[in-house]
Design a protein that fits this description.
With 1026 residues, the protein is mainly beta. Helix content is 9%, strand content 45%. It folds into four domains: 27-103, Carboxypeptidase-like, regulatory domain (Immunoglobulin-like, Sandwich), CATH 2.60.40; 107-233, Ferric Hydroxamate Uptake Protein, Chain A, domain 1, CATH 2.170.130.10; 324-649 and 685-1007, Maltoporin, Chain A (Beta Barrel); 655-684, no CATH class. It starts with 5 loop residues before the first helix and ends with a strand. Residues 1-27 form the signal peptide.
Length: 1026
């Protein structure tokens, strides 16, 4: 595919030219100086210097030096730096300044919260802020990976190394099993913004609102928590130009160990004897094609990727700006059609006027992404395909029977294929099928604020986030694989196209009153929010391409069109969310802070009697250091908070009776379509509501060298939204989306964040800073004593059992069971009698039936932990980051299917995973048991980075120059035998009719056979500033 960027970014390039050509500043006096750390004398890079009361300013360079043109009449400079006390420096005619700043003043650090900012001292809720200097580094393409493992209670799990795969985000465990489970994303104030609109290189900070009292200001969209992303902006002063770029090599970190030619043929012959084949040697020879093919090697590669970021920023005359262009060329590990090319442009402009009373800002970003979607079934069949067979029948060194060769040449274009069930040549799939996705995301955000009085300001904003996508899929006329387990001759030569157009429009108005009352402070906020989501799309597809040359770009040549069998569909939907909200924040001296908020939200998704509801919150904090004038600790702040948040129903029109096409009706020798109901209506559908209590402690000792926080929370989610089973009749269909009023989802947990700055160790410039996070999770489903409106599952309200995690042709037992009062995520199976199984060659279980299933594991973790270690010595810096999830189990389905000889008895063509040959000699078909449920706890060296910053000195034209090498996913310490031990929070292949969509949170902990291989990467990068 060719990446076409001109039509989206020509305006950005022109604007960059204008900014370069026009930036200038007028000055009366030049002031120079140096800013250093008061404790160790180190220069502070990037410290901000502003002419007090204006936006005129600059930042320090690598050596802590600055030069600033100060207008006549200026009386002072304001100097600030994150983590240091802000200073006001009087100007009394001096032109050279040596400024020292005191570190550890974390209480002045600004923290982004809902609809505003507060200092760290004023925070009354569970909020975590991560700045760009603390982000993970290396091969980062998903913004959420910047903070993976950095926030206690926030789990970011990416299973496998799919270049186009996203991360699963869960805050404080499971918040729902039918409603939304991912935190609300807000980018520069745009609620529900698409993560594809922001490049990781453009992010300044990420703030996580963890508890209900912090998130309640966002009402019905915040039940799973809130992640606030703030992008980088320009600063007043001289123009700054920077380049950030890196090159990455990515490879398989762990591959299944499958049998080679000799072991495979040995097992086939042995299986022939065990099942009583007339001639076991002939049984073996029938599947021996003479080669020794490493199928995993044939379908994978070392992916080479490169990423580039250019930015230009500055400001003068009340205006600041930052423009950036990012390009990513990401190559996945799949040998063909795996990766994406993306270009992103962003422009942030701020303009102040009328003595800074009026502030205007414009944020515009555009992203073009062309993705090649690799078919993960390629890896599935690379594990199981015959290691003696060739990829193509004309390859040298193989012996292919004439009949097989002729069929492969005539039917499959020369690719070796055997017409067996669920058995496909992985190289053929990779080379004869394709899936492409082209996406354009445009986000613009306009904001204006005006100080109508000294203490009163009004602000308004409007934003639109638009996503347009064009998707295409193609299968060659010679491709045997049609997407299912059986070869589909009717699906050969298939092609499809689909388009989508999604929009998110947001308009908000707020009024703020902020005043000092002596030693106390009061802030009042009132606001209105109107938001509309719109979705529309079209799709068409069919089979029967007369030539592969058409691909998916000329559907009118499909034979299905002539036969009247082409599939065509379209859709259009929308919903609105409207909210009125208010907040009061009171500071009593320096010790006490109280915050209260309320939001009234309404949505078009609910039934007519339940469209609106209230979501209140209250929180408070008391710093005992100030309250009791304690000596010793620097901070000892207790927090307590309570808040209610909500979650929307899944469907846009679930409260209405919907209709679709029905059976065709014969008339006048032909057929006419009919319209019939397509779902049950539930006019009583209402919000899912979560109540959360949080108690916390923020502490600091040893002149703020030791800092940390401790939080305990209890969450109760009621009126759970899910699809429930109902009788038919009286209902038209067997399920309906509804609220479960008789059960509550209960979450409890403990979170610890701890850090220590050792400063200058030994007086030689060596420093060490460790940071630890630790989180526990507990989730249960509890009976709340109310009479049920609907049953939970077919067995009633007390229990739900999922269907099996098998595949076509395998009748496997269910493994997941949710029972009232027990830990959520339980894995229940029968127990394997290993001795009896080995003795008989058939699976033998302890007990004799369904009642003998027992709890053998849990798919959700008990606790998570991370440890970041930062070392500095002169210009060198080293960061080693460890992360782990503990206490979760996985049902290892690849091992269950392919880890023993059961399939060889009837399907001798399949290969086996050799790490489980303890079951050698067992020839019955695979069945799930406790034997295949494994502890998947792990500790990973998630990220390691070594950097060197050059001291270039003045006159070189450089502000900074840094080079680094980094590694990601370097190793895992785990007992899990599969390719990836990361948590599976849901099963994406088994909805069971109880969950809308593909994420079934009722069945966590299933490692599917199509899991993408886990990868590790090595990166070399350069950062340059001018």
């Amino acid at each position: 595919m060719k990446l076409n960027i001109n039509h989206v970014h020509r305006g950005f390039l022109f604007l960059l030219f204008v900014l370069f050509a026009s930036s200038a500043a007028l000055a009366q006096t030049t002031v120079t100086g140096t800013i250093t750390d008061a404790e160790n004398g180190d220069p502070l890079i990037g410290a901000s210097i502003l002419v007090t009361g204006t936006s005129t300013g600059t930042v320090t360079d690598f050596d802590g030096n600055f030069t600033l043109n100060v207008p006549a009449g200026a009386e002072s400079l304001t100097v600030s730096y994150t983590g240091y006390a802000t200073q006001t420096i009087p100007l009394t005619g001096q032109t050279e300044l040596d400024i020292t700043m005191t570190s550890g003043e974390l209480l002045d650090e600004v923290v982004v919260v809902g609809y505003g900012t507060v200092t760290q001292k004023q925070v009354t809720s569970a909020v975590t802020s991560i700045d760009s200097e603390d982000f993970n580094a290396g091969n980062i393409n998903d913004p959420t990976q910047l903070i993976q493992g950095k926030v206690a209670g926030l789990t970011i799990s990416k299973v496998g190394g799919n270049a186009n795969g996203g991360s699963v985000i869960r805050l404080r465990g499971l918040s729902s099993f039918g409603g939304n489970q991912s935190p609300l994303i807000i980018i520069d104030g745009v609620v529900g913004a698409n993560l594809n609109t922001v490049d990781p290189a453009d992010i300044e900070s990420i703030n996580v609102l963890k508890d209900g009292s912090a998130a309640a200001i966002y009402g019905i969209q915040a039940s799973a928590g809130v992640i606030l992303i703030t992008t980088k902006r320009g600063a007043a002063g001289d123009a700054q130009f920077s380049y950030r770029g890196y090159v990455t090599a990515e490879e398989i970190a762990k591959r299944p160990e499958v049998a080679d030619r000799n072991l495979y043929l040995e097992l086939v012959e042995e299986t022939g004897r065990l099942i009583g084949a007339d001639d076991p040697i002939a049984f073996r020879n029938n599947v021996d094609y003479g080669g020794n093919t490493d199928w995993i090697d044939r379908v994978t590669r070392t992916g080479i990727s490169h990423v580039h970021n250019l930015s230009y920023s500055g400001g003068a005359g009340g205006m600041t700006y930052r423009a950036s262009v990012n390009y990513r060329d990401i190559q996945g590990i799949g040998v063909d059609n795996d990766g994406f090319r993306q270009i992103n442009g962003r422009l942030n402009i701020n303009q102040s006027a009328f003595n800074d009373k009026l502030n205007l800002s414009v944020d515009v970003t555009a992203t073009d992404r062309d993705a090649d979607i690799f078919n993960n079934n390629v890896f599935k069949y690379a594990i199981t395909y015959n290691p003696t067979a060739p990829a193509r029948v004309d390859e040298a060194g193989y012996t292919v029977p004439d009949a097989v060769a002729a069929n492969s040449l005539d039917t499959y274009g020369g690719y070796f294929e055997i017409d067996n069930f669920d058995y496909f040549n992985p190289v053929a799939i990779a080379q004869t099928t394709a899936s492409e996705r082209q996406q354009t995301n445009i986000l613009y955000n306009l904001r204006a604020s005006y100080d109508i009085l000294e203490d009163v300001s009004l602000s308004a904003s409007y934003s639109r986030n638009r996503e347009d996508g064009i998707n295409g899929s193609f299968g060659s006329r010679f491709s045997r694989f049609g997407g299912g387990a059986a070869g589909s001759p009717a699906r050969r030569g298939f092609a499809s196209r689909s388009v989508n157009d999604n929009r998110n429009d947001l308009f908000e108005v707020t009024a703020t009153y902020n005043t000092d009352l002596g030693n106390n402070g009061l802030e009042l906020l009132a606001g209105y929010s109107w938001q509309e989501y719109q979705f529309q799309g079209f799709n068409a597809g069919g089979a029967g391409l007369p030539s592969d040359a058409f691909g998916f770009n000329n559907l009118n040549v499909l034979n299905d069109i002539a036969a009247g069998q082409i599939a065509v569909g379209s859709y259009q939907a929308s919903y609105r969310v409207i909210g009125f909200f208010g907040r009061a924040r009171l500071s009593l001296g320096s010790a006490y802070n109280i915050t209260a908020s309320v939001r009234r939200d309404g949505t078009s998704r609910n039934g007519p009697e339940n469209k609106w509801d209230f979501f209140p919150a209250v929180s408070a904090s008391a710093d005992l250091v100030d309250a009791l004038s304690l000596e010793g600790p620097d901070q000892l702040k207790f927090r307590v908070g309570y808040g209610i948040t909500g979650s929307l129903p899944n469907g846009n029109y679930a409260y209405l009776q919907t209709f679709g096409t029905g059976p065709q009706f014969p008339q006048n020798g032909g057929y006419i379509p009919t319209i019939s109901p397509s779902s049950n209506a539930n006019p009583n559908l209402r919000f899912e509501k979560k109540q959360e209590f949080n108690a916390g402690l923020d502490f600091a000792f040893d002149d703020y060298r030791l800092t940390g926080s401790l939080d305990f929370y209890v969450r109760n989610t009621g009126d759970l939204i899910t699809s429930v089973i109902v009788p038919s009749p009286p209902f038209l269909f067997s399920s309906v989306e509804a609220n479960l009023n008789n059960v509550d989802l209960i979450n409890t947990g403990l979170e610890l964040a701890l850090g220590y700055s050792f400063g200058d160790l030994g007086g030689d410039g060596f420093s060490y800073e460790p940071r630890l996070t630790f989180s526990t999770f507990s989730t249960t489903l509890e009976d709340n004593g109310e009479n049920p409106d609907f049953n939970f599952g077919a067995g009633g309200v007390q229990e739900f059992e999922s269907s099996s995690p098998g595949s076509p042709g395998q009748n496997l037992d269910p493994v997941s069971r949710v029972i009232i009062g027990e830990d959520f995520g339980g894995i229940y199976t029968r127990r394997l009698d290993v001795d009896a199984t080995l003795a008989s060659g058939q699976y033998v279980f302890l007990g004799d039936g369904e009642a003998d299933k027992v709890l053998v594991g849990n798919g959700l973790p008990d606790f998570s932990a991370s440890l970041s270690n930062t070392f500095r010595y002169g210009p060198l810096d080293l960061n080693i980051f460890l992360r782990g999830d503990f206490g979760h189990d996985l049902v290892n389905m690849p091992r269950n299917f392919y880890g023993q000889q059961g399939n060889l008895a009837t399907r001798a063509i399949e290969n086996v995973i050799v790490n489980d040959l303890f079951l050698r000699g067992v020839t019955s078909a695979p069945k799930v048991s406790d034997y295949f449920v494994e502890d998947a706890s792990f500790l990973a060296l998630d990220n390691a980075q070594l950097g060197y910053t050059f001291d270039l000195g003045p006159g070189t034209g450089f502000n900074d120059l840094r080079v680094y090498v980094a590694g990601q996913n370097l190793f895992y310490i785990t007992d899990y035998s599969g390719v990836d031990p990361n948590v599976r929070f849901f099963d994406d292949q088994n909805s069971n009719g109880i969950i809308d969509g593909g994420e079934n949170a009722l069945t966590p902990g299933i490692d599917r056979r199509s899991t993408f291989f886990r990868t590790r990467s090595f990166t070399f990068g350069v950062n340059v500033g001018f």
